[in-house]
Design goal:
Elements: E1 3-14, E2 17-28, H1 43-50, E3 58-63, E4 66-67, H2 71-74, H3 92-103
Antiparallel strand pairs: 1-2, 1-3, 3-4
């Protein structure tokens, strides 16, 4: 079975605080997985890194065998890591157009 996401020895520090320290795992194609842990354990940091929103201090990650920072790959993968903030005075389509213009 092919691997959709491969995370190899990822690390991330915020100053002297290690949010991630050598995290490694593979997600096989067709599987469902979850990331569990207490507040402050690095779950959102890990997702931020694999979605190319944050930069790791070390390690690597691959989506479908491609480097996770590949521009071509970025056009095919999306996420919503936190509660979205929209302009309440704009329509839904206007908010989407703003988001679209930022991602190009």
């Amino acid at each position: 079975m092919s691997v959709v996401l491969s995370i190899n020895n990822l690390s991330k520090s915020y100053g002297s605080v290690k949010a991630l320290n050598g995290v490694s795992f593979d997600v096989p194609q067709g599987s469902v997985f979850g990331i569990l842990g207490p507040n402050g354990s690095g779950k959102t940091t890990l997702l931020g890194i694999v979605m190319d929103v944050l930069r790791a201090n070390g390690g690597q990650f691959l989506w479908f065998g491609q480097p996770g920072t590949s521009p071509q790959l970025r056009q095919q993968i999306g996420s919503l890591l936190e509660t979205p903030n929209f302009y309440s005075y704009l329509s839904g389509i206007a908010n989407l157009r703003i988001t679209q213009s930022i991602s190009r």
